[in-house]
Amino acid sequence: MEEENGDQELLxxxxxxxxxxxxxRVIIHIDxxxxxxxxxxxxxxxxxxxxxxxxxxxxxxxxxxEARALGVEKLMxxxxxxxxxxxxxxxxxxxxxxxxxxxxxxxxxxxxxxxxVEKLGLDENFVDVxxxxxxxxxxxxxxxxxxxQDSDDICACGCTERLAQGSLIAQKMxxxxxxxxxxxxxxxxxxxxxxxxxxxxxxKPNQQTTLLSTSSLxxxxxLKHPRNIPGIGSxxxxxxxxxxxxxxxxxxxxxxxxxxxxxxAKTANQIQQLSFGIDNSRVKITxxxxxxxxxxxxxxxxxxxxVRKKLMCLLDRVLELVEKDGRKPNQLKLTVRKLHPSSHxxxxxxxxxxxxxxxxxxxxxxxPGDEKHKIKLMTTLxxxxxKIIGCDVSWQVTLLGISFSGxxxxxxxxxxxxxxxxxxxxxTSSSRPDEPLPPAKRGRFDESVLQELPPxxxxxxxxxxxxxxxxxxxxxxxDSNCPKGVDPLVFRELPVEIRExxxxxxxxxxxxxxxxxxxxxxxxxKAS
DNA sequence: CTGGGGTCCT
DNA sequence: AGGACCC
Length: 528
Hints:
Helices cover 39% and strands 15% of the residues. By secondary structure, it is an alpha+beta fold. InterPro entries: DNA/RNA_pol_sf, DNA_pol_Y-fam_lit_finger_sf, DNA_pol_Y-fam_little_finger, HUWE1/Rev1_UBM, IMS_HHH_1, Rev_trsase/Diguanyl_cyclase, UmuC. One of its GO terms (molecular function) is DNA-directed DNA polymerase activity.
């Protein structure tokens, strides 16, 4: 640790600084190669080696690499896909059952490596393996797989070794998926979610790539267009283009007030940080789904009889999922896509409280197939349908969707009692007053204590650590996130990396009561 | 007629 | 309830 001059240095260092900025975490992003196509090929091996597209309605939603070599792309219409590639074989992927099943198997494999697994869709997972990283006696920095833009720089925070170890874990995960499930995948290894996801796409398919912290700006700017940053969708992109922002560099250098004007403080801050490769969002453990639904699109229908038929079919499908889930929802939502006479189609939804009768159905023989229950739900759905259609006489409907939600929320009772603090009393600063905290231990816990706990409690504790422990708590936005005691006007004008540093320090202060006088904040405090 | 799902924020 | 984002 630096003495004396350290703080002076801090002022001028930015996110590129290697000695004070911690790239503490090791995040692995696992992305299954052309997911739906792989599942279909496993189910029907005769498809292997042939160009295969997965269709939903008149779209090819994904395809295998043989098809890509022949010019087929994701989300092409069937028509243009067949023009490009007449030999294309098509499999119907409208029923997600098989994809869901494999997705759960994948999730469970990954869970055996870390409790911190977050699903994104059916084919992507983030895994936080920071707690698996060990202090090795020898410096071991062999990276498994590719390294993004190999450089000789070694970050002083120790992340190079940690990420190298992460790459070994990722390799094991992928071998495991391949050997146990016959699934090939890509992995990206980096110190945050954004960069892990991005770096994993640089070598495809069936490969993995590690990003060392010294290359993070290089990776993010290689995307060229802001729209390629996950988190910047079509709406934000439109507004950026209106500002003439069409490169990552421009997004980086645009004054924050300009972005704030167009996007609001929160989004503005967030996407500018993304443009520097900064992403403090945590890996959020994927627990049971918050909603379970099914939908179907079709050529316009105009009669309630047809609507009823479609809804019955959807209801059967979704009830199967709800029953398998086992919980009892108390909200039912109907979504309708209307083909409006003049303009485009528009989606509308109505939601209502329900009594979900079946479930475990104790003594009464109310099972998943209970007719009375279904009829009641159908009545509710048709009522919702009328609310949407209203007095419109010549409606046309091109999509219907049903979704159940309103499941008992986990943390409902006495969060204080459930807190991790119950098991790990706060460590007072008095125990080791002026000792610099060892990087590997800071904010962490004694794993041996964890091992002693019963498995279910252990899981709960680990979840607590991810879900309510501080580090990347979505920042409580005050004005424009300005830390206390700092002039908001000054704060706004600071470069994003400095702002981030300040915010990080504020968060640290909130969580630990330890007073630290030598920090960045003091330089920006108003004299009082 | 651009899918069939999800999540979170406003 | 809608909108934005993700796959």
